[in-house]
């Protein structure tokens, strides 16, 4: 049987620049219980922006 809650759920962070190029990442729930704030390139803004995890 499949587990009810996955250990590595899909997370969709949004860029803080406002345009919001969508990203999809997986995070390990036990190793990273806090919200992730990675930096990545946003093609609509043409610069690197912080990505805030949404819940």
From TrEMBL:
GO terms for cellular component: ribosome
Keyword Ribosomal protein: yes
Region of interest called Disordered, as start-end residue ranges on this chain: 1-55
InterPro entries per record: Ribosomal_bL33, Ribosomal_bL33_sf, Ribosomal_zn-bd
Transmembrane segments: none
Compositionally biased tracts (Basic and acidic residues): 31-55
Keyword Ribosomal protein: yes
Keywords: Ribonucleoprotein, Ribosomal protein
Family: Belongs to the bacterial ribosomal protein bL33 family.
Entry-linked NCBIfam families: rpmG_bact
This protein's name: Large ribosomal subunit protein bL33
